[in-house]
Amino acid sequence: QVQLVESGGGLVQAGDSLRLSCTASGRVFTKDRMGWFRQAPGKEREFVAAVSWNYGGTWYADSVKGRFTISRDNAKNTVYLQMNSLKPEDTAVYYCAGRQLGRSEYDYWGQGTQVIVSS
Questions:
Q1: Mean per-residue pLDDT for 95-112?
Q2: What is the mean pLDDT of residues 17-28?
Q3: Which of 6, 20, 96, 118 is the most buried (most CB within 10 A)?
Q4: Which residues contact 54 (CB under 8 A, 6 or more apart)?
Q5: Are the C-beta atoms of 20 and 94 separated by less than 8 Å?
Q6: Cβ partners under 8 Å of residue 101, min gap 6
Q7: Distance (Å, rounded) from C-alpha 102 to C-alpha 49?
Q8: 53 CB-near residues (< 8 Å, 6+ apart)
């Protein structure tokens, strides 16, 4: 079984920063991309950011560009999401996801970590 475990969520004030981490363990899978998604109460899950595991290319939702930075440490099997200038609208459960090479969908998901940004 592939396991993705997130950490780093919490309660912060608007303008603060947080760094989320997600470590993959268990069965090894050939990673194409690792991504972060989020789901706010009463809303659909939405894409936040993704990183190419081999090449380091990154993609971001418009709502977080310039504020969030995704990165990865291949040796540690870990992907990070540095979130700066947090806004109340960033409040959500953040999920880490892994996409296997050759697949078009994310196959593996973490359990989520809560981020609450107070105004």
A1: 95
A2: 93
A3: 96
A4: 31, 32
A5: yes
A6: 30, 31, 32
A7: 19
A8: 31, 32, 33, 34, 72, 74
C-beta of residue 32 within 8 angstroms of C-beta of residue 92: no
Q: Average model confidence (pLDDT) for the chain?
A: 96
Structure tokens at 19: 């760094």
The answer for residues whose C-beta is within 8 angstroms of residue 79's C-beta and 6 or more apart is 21, 22, 34, 36, 51, 70, 71, 72, 73, 96
Structure tokens, 114:
């809560």
Report DSSP letters for 32-98, one per residue: EEEEEEEE-TTS--EEEEEEETTT--EEE-TTTTTTEEEEEEGGGTEEEEEE-S--GGG-EEEEEEE
Round to whole Å and give the CA distance between 69 and 84: 8
DSSP state of 104: S
